[in-house]
Design a protein that fits this description.
The chain is α/β, with parallel strands linked by helices. It contains 15 helices and ten strands. The radius of gyration is 20 Å and the shape is globular. The two termini are 38 Å apart. The structure holds 5,6-dihydroxy-NADP and zinc ion (ZN).
Length: 391
């Protein structure tokens, strides 16, 4: 295991009705004037926004609102949020929604106290200061409720890039599984796929002897394998929703990733798809992961065979471990299809003729140097072949 530090200071309030304590937590973490940030309207329709506002009123906390965050959140609204936040003197941001709303909130939180362009942080500039952020989560997916990351798309050039700092880990996150019961099945399945991707990206490591994190990842993958079909069949299954919601947090706050190298090639390859086609991130991952895994499998075939046996119930073929490895990848892809995820470019709405453009932005866009690296380093030719495998 490699040396590591792990700092995850988020307070989690989990369970039914917990959103009514939002105001209490804002106060506890020092907020006195709040920006409520939300998306395209699901939280208005469900009445959640009103409940959050009522909890702020109860604590005597003034607030302003900024809605309109789109999935795959854009820089334009972030600039607007920074300007409004400064003008109104807000000192706390509460994100009511999914990963997109949380990431947009984190970007505004970094941008308000910073003199330069907030995009600098998405090009690697270290964050020195950020306003505190709290979240009321409405979809189990991105894991941003516990993560130090934010992913934003810069409209100029449509670059989808991430920023990371412990300073943007939420101060608190309210996780009420009931709030996810209004999700359309496709969004539930996209979220589940993203959670499983966060587990696989950590499982694909070059660090030896990381049994504890391997076993945690396998336990979470098994949980997702068990619970996701139950929730697709019965969207009101609270217990299954609860397990998925907590799995989504544990999958991505890095409990499962400490002390080991991680991959993330599937994520960066997918981010070009959701940037160009505005598809759901999880749906893009469902098409991306099997192609990437098959392409890199021989780099460490036993790693793929291990997850095939321990999670997907495959029989180990000791003479031909590559057969077991491939069976595991195919079982994962069949599972994703069974929950309603797309399996190829066409089903995703992607186009073969765009591959050169996708590869160019992936390998050269916004300061990249011709390749991406993780479990293996992939150059332009590799990435072209991987996108072609998704056709
Ligand atoms: O905008 P509204 O109307 O709220 O609708 C949303 C949106 O259309 C809807 N939705 C959310 N909760 C709902 C609901 N509809 C009905 N009932 C509810 N309870 O679902 C749609 C998707 O929401 P979004 O926030 O985009 O989903 P998700 O949480 O999957 O976030 C995706 C974004 O997170 C990024 C992705 O790249 C993508 O931009 N990621 C962020 C990470 C991080 N910060 O750590 C890591 C991830 O790997 C990921 O890259
Ligand atoms: Zn993801």
């Amino acid at each position: 295991m490699e040396n590591f530090t792990f700092y995850s200071p988020t307070l989690f309030a989990f369970g039914k009705g917990t959103e009514s304590d939002a105001g209490k937590y804002v106060k506890r973490f020092g907020g006195s004037k709040v920006l409520i940030h939300y998306g395209g309207g699901s939280v208005v329709r469900s009445g959640l926004l009103d409940r959050v506002k009522a909890s702020l009123d109860k604590e005597g906390l003034p607030f302003i609102e900024l809605g309109g965050v789109k999935p795959n959140p854009r820089s334009g609204l972030v600039y607007e949020g920074i300007e409004i936040g400064r003008k109104e003197g807000i000192d706390f941001i509460i994100a009511v929604g999914g990963g997109s709303v949380i990431d947009s909130s984190k970007a505004i939180a970094m941008g308000i106290p910073y003199d330069g362009d907030f995009w600098d942080f998405y090009q690697g500039k270290p964050v020195e200061k950020a306003l505190p952020v709290g979240t009321v989560l409405t979809i189990a997916a991105a894991g941003s409720e516990g993560s130090p990351d934010s992913v934003i798309t810069k409209e100029e050039g449509m670059f989808k890039r991430g920023a990371g700092s412990d300073l943007i880990r939420p101060k608190f996150s309210i996780l009420n599984p009931e709030l996810t019961q209004t999700l359309p099945p496709f969004q539930t399945a996209s979220g589940a796929t993203d959670i499983m991707a966060h587990l696989y990206e950590r499982y694909l490591t070059n660090t030896k002897d990381v049994e504890v994190t391997d076993r945690l990842i396998e336990a979470l993958l098994l949980t997702m394998k068990h619970e996701t079909p139950r929730v697709i069949a019965d969207p009101d299954n609270y217990e299954a929703r609860a397990n998925i919601m907590w799995a989504g947090m544990v999958a991505h706050n890095n409990t499962c990733g400490v002390g080991r190298s991680q991959d993330w090639n599937s994520h960066v390859i997918e981010h070009e798809l959701s940037a160009l086609y505005d598809c759901a991130h999880g749906a893009g991952l469902a098409v991306t992961m099997p192609a990437v895994f098959k392409y890199v499998m021989n780099h460490n075939v036993m790693r793929f065979a291990q997850v095939a046996v321990r999670v997907w119930g495959c029989q180990m073929d000791f003479e031909h471990p590559e057969v077991t490895a491939l069976e595991g990848i195919n079982a994962f892809q069949s599972f994703l299809c069974s929950i309603g995820m797309p399996k190829n470019f066409e089903e995703l709405g992607a186009k073969q003729e765009d591959i050169p453009k996708l590869v160019d932005v992936l390998c050269h866009g916004d300061g990249r140097q011709g390749s991406i690296s993780g479990f293996v380093t992939l150059n332009e030719e590799d990435c072209t072949k991987i996108y072609q495998m998704m056709i």
